[in-house]
Amino acid sequence: MKKIRYIKFSKREFSKTLDFCKLFSNSLEDANIIIKQFNSLTQNQRLEIIKAYSEREKLLKIQINSEDEDMYLTCTAVNFNIVATKYDIDPATVCICIASPCKSNEKIIVI
């Protein structure tokens, strides 16, 4: 059986990442639920989420005029929601997988 590795973060330290992800993905979910969802994902699921989002991001950059920043941000939030729907998680959890403060095989503890 594999040993599970946890990474400790202070509330203030982790709230920067969490607030960014919630704002960027237009999420209203509670922080504890987002952390619980993130920790419940396997290493393979996290890597699949990153890959799925990267593919959508690549398409978005081709299709959207780079000068229209509002449209780009809206489409990015939509992409977070599309990927989140596949895994039945919150869009902010997808964002945390992408901007992960830890390795894909580690879990988060906020103290």
What does this structure look like?
The chain has a two-stranded parallel sheet with strand order 1-2. With 111 residues, it is mainly alpha-helical. The model has no long low-confidence stretch (mean pLDDT 91). The longest helix has 21 residues, at 43-63. The chain is built from five helices and two strands. Helices cover 66% and strands 9% of the residues.
Features:
mainly alpha, 111 residues, 66% helix
Summarize the structure.
The protein is 66% helix and 9% strand. With 111 residues, the chain is mainly alpha-helical.
How do the helices and strands line up, and which of them pair or pack?
Layout: E1 5-9, H1 11-25, H2 31-40, H3 43-63, H4 69-87, H5 91-98, E2 106-110
Parallel strand pairs: 1-2
Helix pairs in contact: 1-5, 2-5, 3-4, 4-5
Order of helices and strands: EHHHHHE
State the end-to-end distance.
26 Å
Shape: globular
Which parts are unreliable, with pLDDT below 50 for 5 consecutive residues or more? Answer: none
Largest sheet: 2 strands, parallel
Strand order of the largest sheet: 1-2
Mean pLDDT: 91
Strand residues, percent? 5-15%
Class from secondary-structure proportions: mainly alpha
**What count of helical segments does DSSP give?**
5
**Helical content band:** 55-70%
| Overall strand count | 2
Radius of gyration: 14 Å
Compute the number of structural domains: 1
